[in-house]
Amino acid sequence: MMSPVELTLAVLVLLLTPGPTNSLVLLAGAERGWPGALRLIPAELSGYLLTVLPLALMGTTLLADHHALRTAVTLAAGAWVAVLAAKLWRVPEAADGGRSVGGRALFVTTALNPKALIFGLVLLPSPDRLGANLAIFAGLVVLVAAIWAGLGAVLRAGGSGQPRAVFVLRRLASIWLAAVSLVLIARGIAA
Fold this sequence. Notes:
The chain has helices spanning about 5-15, 20-40, 40-65, 65-90, 105-110, 115-125, 130-160, 165-190. It has about 190 residues and is mainly alpha-helical.
């Protein structure tokens, strides 16, 4: 069992790692500014908890007994990230204010984020510390989301709020998410 400090460091490093959720929060910061992106944090936290909580309570047994379920979850995550990559590649309609990241997309992306499997199956389960572990996790999710949103807002303030810079950022995020999607799908097929 990990100490609270070890758990905090492990969760922090994994949360800070670029991935689908962080890409969307970064883009939200660039599109909406920091205050606007911060409003999306409850969607991210809810998405993580939807996956992490059941896994921390019973996931190890469930996935060990049902290998096909692990494969299905991996393929679903890969497919969803591919859909996101395609959506980010397209230019948003003027009616939506040019915002490509909404609460629903962030929630689903986070619920299907492969990191959630690591949190729920490896890092957080502990018979006597689950509540404390979840509290540490939730606090770190909020902190890291604020950091990624802030980074996006800094890019916006540095001139990236201009339509061309946001367009380029969207395209880079789309390419990154497409690569993540291919890796997930390949892992799902190989499993």
